[in-house]
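User: Batch of two.

Assistant: Item 1 of 2:
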Amino acid sequence: MTKFDAFPVLVNRLSRVAHAMQFSHGLNPAQWEALRYLEKANRYSSSPSAMADYLGATKGTVSQTLIALESKGLVKRDRCPNDRRAVVLALTDAGREILSQDPLCQIYAATEKVPEEERQQLVGVMKSILDDLCVRQNSSQFGVCGDCCHLGEGICAGEGTCGITGDPLGASDLHRICIDFSPCEGDERTSTSSLDSTGVW
């Protein structure tokens, strides 16, 4: 088997293993994905429609997932203060607690024998592959505010301003997933998401 043949086979095998691992703590893979998304989503992206876009799922599927998570007390929904017709989703304390036991953490633990530099390179390669596939499939290219071309002044101070809404962004906002993300061309900006110890969005 050539490296060209081996790569998609390995990706597929890892995907299957990761999928099976997520039938854990009374949750299924879709429910774990929803919890992970809500932990990272920013104030503009904590909605059922944004989640559906990010997960590549239908709104009906996401709705059923959210109903299940709400019944378990892991997710809550409120009305947006600026638009009472809109829904804002958030993790409950129980949701954050169960997410600390995320079964996919076992994958990172499996890389402990790999040098840290190589692990960081692996994250970069996987993100590059994902970005390229999103472009090829004409899928939404989600990313974090710290890597977005709309990020305005203040970045050097660990904060900034959203170029779309004009809202100020704090240091924690720079590492959150945004539905309005647009990648910078070339090396226009040094990535600030590297400040996130996981390097993953």
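Item 2 of 2:
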Amino acid sequence: MAALPSLRQLRYLVALSEHLNFRIAAEACFVTQSTLSAGIKELESQLDVKLVERDTRSVRLTDIGIEVVERARAMLAQAQDLVEVARLAQRPLSGTLRLGVIPTIAPFMLPGLLPPLRAAHPDLKLYLREDQTERLLERLRSGDLDVALIALPYDTGELLTRKLFKDEFWFVSRADDPLAQDKEVAVRAVRQGDILLLEEGHCLREHAIAACGTRKANADSMVEATSLHTLIQMVEGGLGVTLLPEMTLKAGILDGTELVARPFSTHVPARDIALAARPTSAHRRDFDLLAQFIVARAREKRVAKTPSRLQKR
């Protein structure tokens, strides 16, 4: 039976793939450059393939090296999960939990979620990372994150997902917009050419396009915003209208503006707020408990009084 690669060797190769510099990769692994270089040579010898091409000026991975790195990332993540399973067996929602959150959720949901979560689980050390969905899922797969709070629909592949609650979209415009004169807005009445969107990479952009049937050809020519607050300023400036999730409105994103929000009358578009994790994650119990906690908080907020400006008449 052929000798199997060690996790140490795989970690060296992954570090080199990230930095493409032996000295920097060695520093990231807290070993000497000669130790890292020897470990990668041992790995190449065991696998009987060339993984890295190097000369005096550059370092690059071979095609098979790139494939091995992808598999090595998954193996390292599963090994970390194995260690965490043992540690967390008796004390769920304690210790370190690395949570990724998309930008259209983080500032609107976390302020109301984190204080009661800390009160209920004082031993939990929560590390947060805000980023776009694609990059969060990449970090989730590589083991850099334990759980991600995202919005569906989105292609999550093999990842485990749990839908938590629906977040309906509202029509937002200046008060003098013709559609704002009604108490409710029909989706089909929204002029596609007037819709302002976030730039490429934000899943909320795709949700808005799907909600209004906006063709991507049209969307490409539209003015785009880098954040929801920029989007609000653009609507205030008279550049168009937009769709915003109810979550953001309840968090007061329109406070201090002259904009108005109107609910949709029929075929109400919505996104699903969801948690995602690796199927092999050691934090599976944490994943389940966190999902239950968020769902319970969402129910409490629905019972609470809705701000008058957002009440559906």
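DSSP finds eleven helices and eleven strands in the chain.
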